[in-house]
Amino acid sequence: MSVQGSQHAEPLPEQPPEYVVAHVQEALATDTRVAELGIGVSVAGGRLFLTGTVSSDEQRDRAGDLAVEVAGDLEVCNDLEVAQLGGPGVPERLA
Amino acid sequence: MIRLAAVGDIHVGEQADPALRDGLRSAPECADVLLLAGDLTRHGTAAEAATLADSLAGTSIPVVAVLGNHDHHSDEAPAVIDTLEQSGVTVLEGGGAVIDTPGGRVGIAGVKGFGGGFAGACASDFGEPEMKAFVQHTRTISNTLARALATLECDVRVALLHYSPVPDTLRGEPLEIFPFLGSYLLAEAVDEAGADLALHGHAHRGTERGVTPGGVRVRNVALPVIRAPFRVFEVEPRRPPWAARHLEETAATPLASRPVAGPRRS
Known about the structure:
The complex is a heterodimer of chains A (95) and B (266). By secondary structure, chain A is α/β, with parallel strands linked by helices. Helices cover 29% and strands 22% of the residues of chain A. Chain A is built from two helices and six strands, in the order H-E-E-E-H-E-E-E. In chain A, the strands form two sheets. A three-stranded mixed β-sheet of chain A has the order 1-2-4, with helices on one face. In chain A, strands 3-5 form a two-stranded parallel sheet. In chain A, a hairpin with a 2-residue loop joins strand 1 and strand 2. The N and C termini of chain A lie far apart (53 Å). In chain A, 34% of the residues are buried. The model of chain A has no long low-confidence stretch (mean pLDDT 88). Chain B has a six-stranded mixed β-sheet with strand order 5-6-9-10-12-11. Chain B has a five-stranded mixed β-sheet with strand order 4-3-2-1-13, covered by helices on one side. Chain B has a two-stranded antiparallel ribbon with strand order 7-8. Chain A binds chain B through residues 32, 35, 37-38, 40, 52-56, 83-89, 91-95, and chain B through 1, 3, 5, 9-11, 17, 19-20, 23, 26-27, 30, 42-43, 69-70, 73, 174, 196-197, 203-205, 217, 219, 222-236.
């Protein structure tokens, strides 16, 4: 399976979804376009779900596109949230 | 009171994210020091470090950072460190810094940390060279952290890490990967030396609050967890202040493995 730097990752032949989950996770980490270790990948009802929080819309889209490349026939549901950076919030006082 | 702004896992790429850049630049409005808990870059390249340096340019408060696993990914860590230090960021890897603030002196000891897992479910220094190297990496780092923390003479003492010293702040991550997210050896080091606060990142799906077995507050400040450009902690100076202590170490009993209470399996 092609990893770093490839523009078109090869979809895998049909195989148990548990392995597809692992391969998508590996691709999300090692493909230089995404390089995310903190994304949750799971399968339910024949659909592959991406969960967690990423830093930008672009990162969310890149992760979703890469998952589609690797997930073969599984439908990819991109449930990634984008961290909306508001202010720092109320300080925590430690005494 | 000393005001600390802290965030981890900002994963800066070659293009700056304006929202993050503007957020980081607002830190001097509400804090005396800005702490960065590793994974400063996405791939660990000098170019990405330069983008971060540019975002921090002109920051009127000290910025202190540790590297994370992403910052080592391209085998350019020395160049990343150099680029950041040239722009005025203090990068710690086993060292410490004491900074004067209006509220007192804050001492920070920083290490990346590493994995291994937590008490009762952790790796052992046994077996193949690769396995031993994994455990010894964390053990060496933890020893370094303990020594660096113990020498800080200051009013508030902080441990700055990338990996987590406790499992509490990992809740939300799959249990099976806890050994890749931190190590109890890091907490042991913090408790051995003593500190007011331990900060870390790395676990994007974790939770914010935890505590070491020795009672030191732990905060996960990874950006995906706090969903803010940083968190602010207002810490009351400890009285009496922290005094420097020299921690003894022998080859047979590395600092982070000495028994603390009762028999322990090695």
